[in-house]
Amino acid sequence: MKKEVLVSDIAPTESCRHPDMTNLLRIINKHNAAGGGLIAILGEIQDEYGYLPEDVLRIVSDQSGRSLVDIYGVATFYRSFSLKPRGRHLVCACLGTACHVRGAPRIVDELERQLGIKAGETTADKEFTLETVNCLGACALGPVVVIDGRYFSKVRQSRVGQLLDEARNGFDSAEAAKDKRIFALNVNCPHCNCGVMDETFALDGLPSIKVNVSHGGKEGALWLSCLYGSYSVAAEFDIPANVIVPFCCPHCERELTSASTCSMCSAPMVHMLVQGGGTIQICSRRGCRNHMLDVA
Amino acid sequence: MITLRINGLDVTVEKGTTVLEAARFLGFPIPTLCHMEGLSPYGACRLCVVEIGQEPRTRLVSSCTYPAEEGLKVRTASARVLKARKMILELLLASCPQSKIIQDLASAHGIRTQRFKQEHEDCILCGLCVRMCEEQMMAKAIGFRNRGEKRSIGTPFDVKSDACRQCGGCIYVCPACQLRCTYAEPEKAICGGCANLSPPCVEKEPFDDMMCYMDPCVACEIDKKIDKR
Predict the structure, then answer these.
(1) Beta-carbon separation of B157 and A73 below 8 A
(2) Cα dihedral A53, A54, A58, A61 in deg (nearest 10)
């Protein structure tokens, strides 16, 4: 129940106008070995922003001592890097020889028809980006479609709509419903014992846990998935990775502190009561997944 | 020191010398487009192909990138080499028909007709300008972008590069660049129109009975294209 995927309504382009320098420097210094590591740097930046923004590439050039020409050459060479903002969900259809003879062009046509875009484009609502690849190396399973990193084999035209719907709702929620290890927790504030569940904001298809957070002079709501094992979060404003934020109860405004610190990153833990008995503690550092559940 | 045999002549060269340099030292002409002294060898244009090894196991290699080996047998103008070189030239000519350098090489190799569709690419991706910019001008303002059929040379993001000092080195070394041979737009021409094409084309007069070694004529083709627009 921690912040991992930031599903905020902040558009990717918004956050890139002011690139987070400390985070960029961390990425660059982590991989910037002598003469190597460029692809690792670009890969991590793409994970962060969803694409490779021009001003970020210029910063990488300044900070890593590589020329912009080399970075741009690598960024345009590989199909997996994108210089244009991509949608929230990336749909990748294989058009390799084996998939092609098994009817991949029809799948691409169907995807294009249902999404209303051509291959290589992004829908106007920034939900889907459709791309084609020339081979994914899973020829026996063709036609292969990859959506958000999940592989779907022997895709038929009739299944396309269902796959897009599942992608829209998030594959995690679909799987969470089936997986017995993932269950929902309803929690209360330990100070005022008020429920902090927000029925109006759904995450993973269930009411979310609403807390108030503040960072960098801004205050706002943070919604955590109530599913134990899911790390989906949404926030009113962008919280950079590795930042420790104070969590407060939305009712009594008191901080949800705990006496203990995180065993993995030694950040303060956040303490909440589980309805029906027990406590849950989660780490307050963004990106850290450490948590402790103690059910009575 | 390494001794190798080029076209039946033994030559001793220092270690690290390329076959191209050794052959030129002996005076054997090998045409090149992407090779230039002072720039690192690149092997892009493949015009400098030579045949190495002994019958029946010979193979074609680009001599500008192949280092001399002890006892290597090289032929720079065998039938197989000439055939391959002619084909390469025809393909280069198809992608950049307006380049004077390629036209001259083609006519020197006995190419009289255009077999392939003319693409008018303005670039053969030989990388001379990229290496010139990086190695001689120390600028690194231009480089290769994309790959496959979309590969192109230019500045990152297609905007004016801060690293570019507008030295003109890239244009100077370019064997295909239109800036050196703009016969179709005479008012912008720099080199004054190219020798092969000037009689029938620059004046835009009907020279129907004029001898032109190119059939179809490159400039006439461009002329037609402009007319269509």
Answers:
(1) no
(2) 70
Residues of B in contact with A77 (CB under 8 A): 146-147
At which residue do the structure tokens 């030239």 appear?
A: B89
Say if residue A198 is in the same domain as residue A257.
yes
Same domain, B8 and B79: yes
Which value, to the nearest 10 degrees, does the dihedral of the CA atoms of residues A92, A95, A98, A102 take? 90
* pLDDT attached to residue B198: 41
Q: pLDDT at residue B181 above 80?
A: no
**Chain B touched by A73 (CB under 8 Å):** yes
Residue among B165, B161, B154, B166 at smallest CA distance from B130? B154
Chain A neighbors of B143, CB-CB under 8 A: 67, 69-70, 72-73
Phi, psi of A161 (to 5 degrees): -60, -45
The whole-number pLDDT of residue B219 equals: 59
* Nearest-CB residue to B141 (from A54, A57, A69): A69
Nearest CB among A68, A71, A76 relative to B146 is that of A76
Strand partners of residue A219: A214
Indicate whether B225 pLDDT > 90. Answer: no
Contact A69 B156 (CB under 8 A): yes
CA pair distance B204, B103, nearest whole angstrom: 20
User: From the centroid of its chain, how far is CA B134?
Assistant: 20
The verdict on residue A136 lying in a domain is: yes
Interface ipTM: 0.74
Mean pLDDT of B176-186: 51
**Angle, helices B79-95/B100-108, rounded to nearest 10 degrees:** 150
B7-57: pLDDT as tens digits:
999 999 999 999 999 999 999 999 999 999 999 999 999 999 999 998 889
Assess whether A127 and A72 both reside in one domain.
Answer: no
The residue of chain B nearest to residue A70, with distances taken between CA atoms, is B143
Question: Which amino acid would we find at residue B115?
Answer: R
Q: Is residue A176 part of a domain?
A: no
Which range marks the domain in which residue A110 is found? 89-169
Q: Which of A288, A293, A291, A254 is nearest to A273 (CA)?
A: A293
| Maximum distance among all Cα pairs of chain A, rounded to whole angstroms | 64
Specify burial of residue A22 (Cβ count, 10 A radius: 0-12, 13-18, 19+).
exposed
Q: What is the pLDDT of residues A98-139, one digit of tens each?
A: 999 999 999 999 999 999 999 888 999 888 999 998 888 889
In this prediction, what percent of chain B has a pLDDT beyond 90? 47
